[in-house]
Design a protein that fits this description.
- This protein is mostly beta strands and 375 residues long.
- It has one domain.
- Helices cover 9% and strands 51% of the residues.
- The longest helix has 17 residues.
Amino acid sequence: MKKVLLRIVLIVLLSSSMHAYAQFRKYSNEFLNIGAGARGLGMGGAQVASVSDGNAGYWNPAGLVHIKDNPVVNFMHAEYFSGIGKYDYGSVAIPLSDKKRTIALSLLRFGVDDIPNTLYLVEPDGSINYNNIRSFSSADYAFLFSYAQSLKQKGNRLFSFGVNAKVIHRNVGTFAKAWGFGLDAGVQMQTKRWKLGIAARDVTTTFNAWSFSFTEEEKEVLYLTDNEIPVKSTELTAPRLVLGAAYDFALGKNFNLLAEANADLTFDGKRNVIVSADPVSIDPRLGIELGYKDLIFVRSGIYNFQRALADGDTLNQKKVWIYQPGLGAGFKLKHIAIDYAFTNLANQSNPLYTHIFSIRLDLVKKEKTKSVKTK
């Protein structure tokens, strides 16, 4: 187990140093950092150590090994900025016959529709013609192909690892599109109470190759309006390492409290986070989940700590720490689970609230009833 963890850390560090000469986009493919599933978002994204359902393909593919008996399907929908941005997530996880390996496919989409295209707003004579405004959509897609396997089980300790191969597609109307490819890897160690996890995202650096397609007429308008005509380019996403630890407290016979802490380590220079350094910055996530008989759950979490100007203090430029809160609830009934999360997209002082719903279905096969023959 120690050798596996050490290899993942080394791969991240070596990949980061090998591409130091290239220009990384600090917030490249940022839509992949939103989260997946109302349970995880209600806990502030603290999931790397404890995730054990179909959403593990996103948080930590090693957690998929806990799906052993039946295929599991997950769906999530959320809308941001009063419905302007729509975020959808779906996955299917299928355990293999030996109950030690699981494969999964996940799909993420973040899109903004009906964006005004004002390229032809101004006529050649300088007059404004609003009838020339058209609309287009911008969408980001990610396809995750996951594989997870148990390493070994010693006593009540379960060791597992998982990998993702992800394909990224981004398009901006008919003007631009990009294709990208990257790899993720993760490990977990779980006992009856303790849970530990590591997820290495974009472990080999993720590449997005952009191409642009403007008509000659569009190029002429861009030139006459002093806009730069973009050319083919490559966007790099630097590796990210997420460390997590969780503990499950037993509160009597019917209640249990799961508490988890994660630390996101980025390697692309200083960021506006609690530990801001070059080349490593650290952003913590904290989450708790109170469960009753494994049927009803209440969750809370905080994440995205940043320093920002205090409200109304534009004169002294005093900065304070802000964070994103999250709340959630859910229930599980036989082979279906429904979860809800209430989060703040910006921070606790800006009311950009979002309602998130997700559902999980266990695809249980019906048992065949034996017919009794009568003589």
